[in-house]
Amino acid sequence: MSVSTASTKNNGTLDNSFENIAKDIIRYQLSEKQLLVGLGSGRAVTKIVKLLPDEVAENCEFICTSLQIKIEAENKNLKIIDESQIPLIDIVIDGADQIDDRFHLIKGGGGALLREKILYFSAKKRIIVADYTKFVSSFSRSVPIEILPFCRTAVIPFLQKIGGTPVLRTLDKGYPYVTENGNLILDVMFNDYSDILGIERELKKIPGIMETGLFIPAPDLCYCALNDNQFKKHETNVSSK
């Protein structure tokens, strides 16, 4: 793994750090012609869309994982194409809710984990952006799990059996949160995160679970936004395919 650090002379805020990361990605990752780019979610992805120069945008096509980022892309007049081209994605850019010391990810806080995982696994190159508070030695938050509404109660004993404590995600008024795929999300806290591969393997055995928020293959490139305009860039040296 290699690490580099960069900064600018703007006011020292985390928001400026994300802006600097967006500029770095545009300059060094999106400069090639005829790229197909998968857009995930998060502050940095939104900034990339807003800061993308016309001359770069003209050479790229985009697939979006959520309506929120699709609206941002439409406002920028980016060339959005349909899902049939997902196997051809060159680069996916996304955020993360937590990143452990092996660069495993927990994603899905925004509810788009199923679509994000499809793009993540399909892309030739994976880029993740998060602020420094998301980098931890070991996971310490719940794992979002997208489930069919039909199995809302059926999966609970199976999750408890493997050490999970599931909580149905709800909106402010108490209504269940429904994903863009028409599914529900359980946020599941586990007693022990020492065997991430084992947890993922057991979750995939449970009927009704559509996808988990555990992203096991490390990204190829991981940006860490710092508070002082700076950011760290981790190249994990892990093949994306």
Automatic annotation (TrEMBL):
Pfam name, any one: Rib_5-P_isom_A
Top-level EC class: isomerase
Transmembrane segments: none
EC number(s) given by UniProt: 5.3.1.6
One of the GO biological process terms: pentose-phosphate shunt, non-oxidative branch
Record has Flavoprotein as a keyword: no
GO cellular component, one term: cytosol
Single annotated GO MF: ribose-5-phosphate isomerase activity
Protein name: Ribose 5-phosphate isomerase A
